[in-house]
Design goal:
mainly alpha, 16 helices, about 75% helix, about 0% strand, globular
Length: about 425
């Protein structure tokens, strides 16, 4: 095991200990640890990562999944090219005008939303989700409802709450924290396509890595949630396998229409968030930067007073913990830190820029960071998930709102835990950019 692999491996236990310390001494929770959940969550993550990074058959499967995802992604751009013409031509093609997020990446969300609806209509995704839910329920001693929600979040986003709609009303606060954490620690498959499109030119194997990150993050979310908010009551569905609650479309055409419409709503939400959040951050940076520059002169120090810079300082220790080489730690800590405010879309774009500009010395940094960013763990997403779930259970609004911040912390730690798992097994001879 090389040095940085060992650091990532040690980071798994450092993050778990850090989560326990926060739970015990900051939130004042009782010292209750669900050992079956903790052991099986970490064990499943390690086995999965070992398979895709080390075992030859797993590496071949990883590459096949990556190639298939890229092929599907290329077909997604055909509709965009018809509507937007050369504006939708991806970088590297003859007629390309360069990378344009709105015309090249966002249309893939609409396409993949329709594709997911088709997979739901033919009962393919529900079948897969049920198997993961059964696995989580039987091995980890958690409720069937939160297991089902976590399994759903591997493939879909805030829509996962619909699969457990009948159970939300009677969930314990720990369960509510878990479903929020699972939502923010993972990403929806339609948005996953956006990240692939953003990074594919600089990082050809990104699709496989992000798909594996989606699977790794679900058990990571479960363990971090239960450490930060341990279960002290008996959930109604504890140890029980519950079935998916969803309304099936009347026809395949209705499924496509509804899926595409949902994708369009996601696009508008992302556009609105980026415009609002990036503008507000620029305004805050302007205010902080003016005061900070004077402090730098007065105190004869050099501090980056932008939000990105300050968050970079906050996340610098965690960047080292997940196994990022020290030469790349400064820029990566800013990319990981800014996700809390700017969303993972901006962070993945900054990662792509750092790779293309040659700012990263180690290939390992790009791979491990792609895992750390693969989640909706940011303030805007917290508001979206709280709003979406409270709409399904209005009487639980107060309880859901009270656990939201804990869930955000748990989701952030879960994403870092996933990065540690990937960093433990990644080597320069396993899976690189190509």
């Amino acid at each position: 095991m090389q040095l940085y692999n060992f650091i990532s491996f040690a980071g798994i236990f450092i993050l778990l200990t850090f989560a326990w310390l926060i739970s015990r001494f900051v939130f004042g929770n009782r010292d209750i640890i669900n050992w079956p959940l903790t052991c099986w969550s970490i064990g499943l993550q390690i086995l999965f990562a070992l398979f895709i990074f080390i075992v030859p058959a797993g590496i071949k499967l990883f590459q096949a999944i990556n190639d298939f995802a890229v092929i599907v992604l290329s077909t997604a751009s055909d509709g965009a090219k018809f509507v937007f013409g050369t504006l939708a031509a991806p970088p590297g093609t003859e007629e390309s005008l360069g990378f344009i997020l709105a015309f090249q990446a966002f249309p893939t969300i609409i396409f993949f939303s329709a594709l997911v609806s088709i997979l739901y209509y033919y009962n393919i995704l529900p079948f897969i989700i049920r198997q993961f839910a059964k696995l989580f329920t039987r091995l980890m001693k958690i409720s069937g409802a939160e297991a089902l929600c976590a399994a759903s979040n591997i493939f879909v986003g805030v829509e996962s709450a619909f699969t457990i709609k009948p159970y939300i009303q009677k969930m314990t606060r720990s369960e509510l924290c878990t479903i929020l954490t699972a939502g923010m620690a993972t990403v929806a498959s339609n948005v996953l396509a956006l990240y692939v499109f953003t990074l594919y030119t600089q990082f050809p194997s990104i699709a496989g890595h992000l798909i594996s990150a989606s699977f790794l993050s679900a058990p990571a979310a479960l363990v971090m949630s239960k450490i930060l908010f341990p279960e002290t009551k008996t959930p109604k569905t504890l140890g029980k396998v519950v079935d998916i609650h969803y309304e099936k479309d009347a026809s395949i055409f209705e499924a496509i229409i509804n899926g595409a419409t949902s994708g369009l709503k996601v696009v508008f939400s992302i556009v609105a968030l980026l415009i609002a959040v990036l503008g507000l951050v620029a305004l805050i940076d302007l205010a902080i930067g003016g005061v900070g520059s004077k402090l730098n002169i007065w105190m004869e120090i050099t501090i980056d007073w932008s939000l990105k810079g300050l968050l970079g300082y906050l996340f610098y220790p965690f960047t080292l913990i997940i196994g990022i080489p020290i030469e790349d730690a400064k820029i990566i800590s800013q990319i990981i830190g800014e996700r809390i405010i700017l969303t993972e879309v901006a962070s993945y774009q900054d990662l792509a820029t750092a790779i293309s500009n040659g700012k990263l010395i180690h290939a390992r940094s790009a791979v491990v960071t792609s895992y750390a960013l693969c989640g909706f763990a940011h303030v805007a997403s917290m508001a979206i998930f709280v709003g979406g779930i409270t709409a399904l259970a209005p009487k639980r609004t107060t309880a859901i709102s009270k656990v939201a911040f804990k869930a955000l912390i748990a989701a952030t730690l879960a994403c870092l835990l996933t990065a540690c798992i990937a960093g433990t097994f990644f080597t320069n001879t396993s899976i690189l950019f190509g």
